[in-house]
Amino acid sequence: MNESSTENDILEISKSQRKREAHELLDLAKKLIAMPETRLKRLPLDQDLRAEVDFARSIRAHGARKRQLMTVGKMLRKRDTEPLMDAVNNIDQKNRQVNLRFHQVEAWRDRLIEGSDQELTKLLEQNPSTHAQTLRQLIRNAKKELKLGKPPTASRKLFKLLRELDEQHRLPPQP
After folding, report:
1. Whole-prediction pTM value?
2. How far apart are CA 128 and CA 123, in angstroms?
3. Averaging pLDDT over each range in 1-5, 73-77, 109-113, 126-130, which range is the top one?
4. Which of 45, 41, 40 is nearest to 81 (CA)?
5. What residues does each domain of the chain span?
6. How far apart are CA 69 and CA 170, in angstroms?
7. Same fold, 2-79 and 95-167
8. What number does CATH give the domain 95-167?
9. Domain 2-79 superfamily per CATH
10. Which end of the chain has less neighbouring CB within 10 Å, N or C?
């Protein structure tokens, strides 16, 4: 008699835990429906689930879209979603890394425009092959554009140059 009660305790999951898992899967369904087509193609979705996600993406009425979201969430509860969650989290992680690098390049550009020659010297020490005169000219023109309130053409060119340096993994980390 003792053995059967321990088996039931092990198999039984609390209602709160089931709700948390259902909400996690509903969040996953929202991400799938909102995801761009190119990323969605790379995910391990079976045909039925893919068809329901595509159908949900095509619905414009709020109520109907919400019902379809619940349907996708219900389908996810009946499947092993571990590989799918891993793939979505991997995509999210890559997006965060790209955003972080973008912000780092922006910070470098802003420091070069607002800062002194020390920032430029630090950048040139890390990248001796970088053409210093071009960098100085872009910084000078960006400062001038900022002062006169003109469109930031030189600032964009400076950003592009810094992004190329970052893609070559030669942009020093921020202090």
Report:
1. 0.60
2. 9
3. 73-77
4. 45
5. 2-79, 95-167
6. 45
7. yes
8. 1.10.60.30
9. PSPTO4464-like domains (1.10.60.30)
10. N
Q: What is the mean pLDDT of the chain?
A: 85
Q: Max CA-CA distance within the chain?
A: 86
Per-residue CA distances from 146 to 10, 110, 141, 152, 167 (Å): 66, 11, 9, 7, 27
Block residue for tokens 């305790």 = 9
Sequence letter at residue 55: F
Q: Rounded to an integer, what distance in angstroms lies between the CA atom of residue 74 and that of residue 60?
A: 20
Q: Give DSSP secondary structure letters for 155-170.
A: HHHHHHHHHHHHHTT-
Model confidence pLDDT, tens digit, residues 128-165: 777 888 888 998 899 898 888 889 899 999 999 888 88
Instruction: Please report the pLDDT score of residue 1 as a whole number.
Output: 44
Which pLDDT belongs to residue 170? 59
Q: Which residues contact 146 (CB under 8 A, 6 or more apart)?
A: 113, 152, 155
Any idea what DSSP says for residue 128? T
DSSP-derived secondary structure for 8-42: HHHH---HHHHHHHHHHHHHHHHHHHHS-HHHHHT
Q: In a 3-state reduction of DSSP, which class is residue 175? A: coil
